[in-house]
Amino acid sequence: MTKSFKKGDKVSWDTSQGETHGKVVKKQTSETYIKSHKVAASKDDPQYIVQSDKSGKKAAHKPTELRKKS
């Protein structure tokens, strides 16, 4: 079963600096760009746009990379 998140969900994910915390901004189901990075999302392979609590920066992650926090 694929993980599903909704806007506002608190999540964590791993980075090269360690675990990062943030929130889901939106579910992305079409190709887009964050800064100059291409996000190859689709309806069959959605990604989630998340915003870091610490830096405020946005990034796209596949559902399998995110963990829901309480």
Description:
The chain has 70 residues and is an all-beta fold. The chain has one domain. Strand 5 and strand 6 form a beta hairpin. The radius of gyration is 11 Å and the shape is globular. The relative contact order is 0.31. The model has no long low-confidence stretch (mean pLDDT 94). This is Hypervirulence associated protein TUDOR domain-containing protein.
Number of helices: 0
Which structural class fits the helix and strand makeup? mainly beta
Lateral strand order in the biggest sheet? 6-5-2-1-7
Q: Please provide the ordered H/E string of secondary-structure elements.
A: EEEEEEE
Largest sheet: 5 strands, antiparallel
Number of E-state strands: 7
The best one-word shape is: globular
Roughly what is the average pLDDT, rounded to an integer? 94
Query: Can you tell me the number of structural domains?
Result: 1
User: What is the helix content?
Assistant: under 10%
> What is the terminal separation in angstroms?
20 Å
Task: List low-pLDDT spans.
Answer: none
Q: For the CA atoms, what is the radius of gyration? A: 11 Å
InterPro entries: Hva1_TUDOR
Organism: Chelativorans sp. (strain BNC1)
Protein name: Hypervirulence associated protein TUDOR domain-containing protein
